[in-house]
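Same chain as my last thread, 349 residues:
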Amino acid sequence: MSNILKVGIAGYGVVGNRRRFFIDKHTDLKLVAVCDRKFIDQTIPDDNICYYTDYRNILDHDIDLLFVCMTNDIAPEVTVAGLNKGVHVFCEKPPGRNLDDVIRVMESEKLKPDLKLKYGFNHRYHDSIRDAIEIVRTKQLGDVINMRGVYGKSKLLSFDTQSSQWRTKRSFSGGGILLDQGIHMVDMMRLFAGEFAEVYSFVSNGYWGHDVEDNAYALMRTGDGIVAMLHSSATEWRHRFRLEITLAKGMIILSGILSGSKSYGDETLKIVYSGKDDRGEPREVVKCYSEDNSWRDEINEFVDAILNDKKIMSGSSTDALKTMHLVFRIYCADDNWRNKYNLSDTILK
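reply #2:
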């Protein structure tokens, strides 16, 4: 039996194209069909791939694996449709607009125990993050004490505002900068600290004035006392990524993250070793990263799970639900924001 998996991509924007780049390089994958609404007006490439404007046309094909790179409002629907069709599904983050979207997908997943479902929490696969995880896991610097994270964009919309308009409409997106980008930082804080027992927040859309947030500030604490401070911002005026992890014997500072736009600066990992005195001049070691292998490694791991029937270890639906739950706890911890969008019923489920 051939191990070649036939692949479809639903949503062929920036992310869908980037997924294709690595799908084409994988010896066990063969892309057969893609869909995107843009093909109504755009010339269809002549490359032996079937191009459609509706994801249901892809599911009419004999495919084994579906990549879902759609807007937040339709991604859960397409994921469920893929599972119901009997194909493995890789869906980009966020998994939907709210917790109900994720729960609906998980209910379909339970009916298809032989299928693999994975969510694209891509930052876990960056080499700097992996190295930091290893340091924390092996307790080279002792236990985690606290964390501070800032993840921000220069503005709420990208320069290609036409294709980004949906991000400012709650009915399509479900949320703003926190759900769209800050969810990566939320996910990593869970990864390094565990689950948070207490959450306090301020959430605001006071600058851009859309019905989604342009800033979210959170203060969180785990049951065993690890404190995390998070700022997810669309008023940074430059792209910014920084996560500081303070441990008993030093500090890890993750700064910059390699991306397609190269706009977040150089990806570095700084290890700070606590000194024997109080001069505040500790020994530091900086590691720089020049290649982004995260997209490749993420896909490789998923394909390996399919071909060798392995459990999804990172980016499972359970992971997605827990991270989404924390995002909405941050929303609901701000009384004004919770009441404004009637979010209490969502978070209590």
